[in-house]
Amino acid sequence: MIKNIQFMEQLNQYYTTWQEWNCMYEEWAKANGLSANSLLVLSAIYDSKEECTQKKISQRWLVPKQTVNMILKDFEKQGLVELSPMRTDKRRKTICFTPKGKEYAKTILSKLRKSGNECN
C-alpha cells in the first residue's frame, strides 16, 4: 500500500513537471511566431538522422498525422521544406529542409536550446 502511494505521488510530481515544461515550451514557441506543434515538427526534421517522414514525426511526438501534414504544407508554402517521394515507397514522402529552412531551423532551435540552458 505504501509503495502504491509513493508511486502515485511520484507520478503526480512527474505530471506537474511535465505540464510546467509544456506550458513554458508553448509560451516560448508562441513568442517566436510558432505553435508548439510547429516547433516539434521543426525540431524533428532538424534532428532526424535518417529519412524523415510525416509518420515518424507523428509517432515520435504523439502529434496527429493530420496536424503534422498541415504544418508541413505551411512550411512548404514558406519555402522551408521539400517533400519528395521515398525511393522504397512512392506513396510516402521524405521531408528535407531547403537551404532557407535549414538556416531558419538552425536559428530557431539554437535560440531554444540556449534558452533551455539558461533554465539549468
From TrEMBL:
HTH marR-type domain boundaries: 1-120
Positions in coiled-coil regions: none
Recorded GO MF terms: DNA-binding transcription factor activity
One GO term (biological process): response to stress
Pfam short name (any one): MarR_2
Top-level lineage group: Bacteria
Family matches, as PANTHER family: HTH-TYPE TRANSCRIPTIONAL REPRESSOR YETL (PTHR33164:SF43), TRANSCRIPTIONAL REGULATOR, MARR FAMILY (PTHR33164)
Name recorded for this polypeptide: Helix-turn-helix domain-containing protein
Taxonomic lineage from the root: Bacteria, Bacillati, Bacillota, Tissierellia, Tissierellales
